[in-house]
UniProtKB/TrEMBL annotation:
Record-linked SUPFAM superfamilies: Nucleotide-diphospho-sugar transferases
Site (Transition state stabilizer): 15, 22
Family label: Belongs to the IspD/TarI cytidylyltransferase family. IspD subfamily.
Protein name: 2-C-methyl-D-erythritol 4-phosphate cytidylyltransferase
Superkingdom, taxonomy of origin: Bacteria
GO biological process per UniProt: isopentenyl diphosphate biosynthetic process, methylerythritol 4-phosphate pathway
Function statement: Catalyzes the formation of 4-diphosphocytidyl-2-C-methyl-D-erythritol from CTP and 2-C-methyl-D-erythritol 4-phosphate (MEP).
E.C. number(s) listed in UniProt: 2.7.7.60
PANTHER family from the UniProt entry: 2-C-METHYL-D-ERYTHRITOL 4-PHOSPHATE CYTIDYLYLTRANSFERASE, CHLOROPLASTIC (PTHR32125:SF4)
Lineage: Bacteria, Pseudomonadati, Pseudomonadota, Betaproteobacteria, Burkholderiales
Organism: Pseudoduganella ginsengisoli
Pathway annotation from the record: Isoprenoid biosynthesis; isopentenyl diphosphate biosynthesis via DXP pathway; isopentenyl diphosphate from 1-deoxy-D-xylulose 5-phosphate: step 2/6
Length: 228
């Protein structure tokens, strides 16, 4: 099965509130997006990597050289993550077959490894609804919906990570037809709306999403560890 990666990297990093978009901040001396892209470039299972950035992005050329092989930068980012992914999927229409698997992965998760990519593809590559990396919830969960405070049994609750992997045609249809874009909080939710059940494949805490300034140090701690 041919697999390609699509990395949305067109966000502004409002919660990080740094001088530049967070995907370009250094993590252990390397731009975050470089580390993220390198996980796919080092994987023998990934045929090509596409990175979606904003049209006016002034940082990308210093991170991914236009002449680098195996990776293509698409300057078609949109106002939301879902728009960036949809624009990216449409931009690669001619290069990708309907049955190819697309692994969508946040630029802001630099702790991904080729081993986790392999685990996802081997675990869910043949599943009709695709699959995603996720982590079982370890904390006690409280719900304050409505008036009552309740403790939600955490058994069966998972936290979604990325990559999230679907065949190209299914993901394109799911995102284009999503009835309520606000309910699409990740790619899998759009696929679920079509009635599919993506498989959950256990990820790893090192694949955290870098969102707040304090996450940088945590990511650096994982980068210093040997790969798992
Ligand atoms: N993303 C994107 N296009 C957007 C918004 C987000 O490609 N319009 C990407 C981000 O670059 C990031 C991933 O989607 O790699 C996950 O989004 P998030 O962590 O929310 O990043 P930001 O939107 O940049 O951060 P914030 O929400 O704090 O502004
Ligand atoms: Mg965001």
């Amino acid at each position: 099965r041919r697999c390609v990666a699509l990395i949305p990297a067109a966000g502004v990093g409002a919660r990080m509130a740094a001088g530049s978009p967070k995907q370009y901040l250094p993590i252990a001396g390397q731009p975050m997006l470089r580390l993220t892209a390198d996980a796919f470039l080092a994987s023998p299972l990934i045929s090509h990597t596409y990175i979606v950035v904003s049209e006016g992005d002034g940082y990308i050329d210093g991170v991914i050289s236009p002449s680098e092989t195996g990776v293509t930068v698409l300057r078609c980012g949109g106002p939301t993550r879902m728009d960036s992914i949809l624009n990216g999927l449409r931009a690669v229409r001619e290069q990708v077959a309907d049955t190819d698997l697309v692994l969508v992965h946040d630029a802001a998760r630099p702790g991904l490894t080729p081993a986790l990519i392999r685990k996802l593809i081997e675990g869910a590559g043949d599943a009709p609804g695709g699959g995603l990396l996720a982590l079982p919830v370890v904390d006690t969960v409280k719900s304050t919906r409505g008036s009552a405070l309740a403790t939600v049994p955490r058994d069966g609750l998972w936290l979604a990570q990325t990559p999230q992997m679907f065949n190209y045609a299914l993901l394109l249809r799911a995102l284009s037809e999503a009835p309520d874009p606000l309910a699409v909080t990740d790619d899998a939710s759009a696929v679920e709306m079509l009635g599919y059940s993506p498989l959950l494949i256990e990820g790893h805490p090192r694949n955290l999403k870098v969102t707040l300034p304090s996450d940088i140090r945590i990511a650096e701690m994982y980068m210093a560890q040997t790969e798992q």
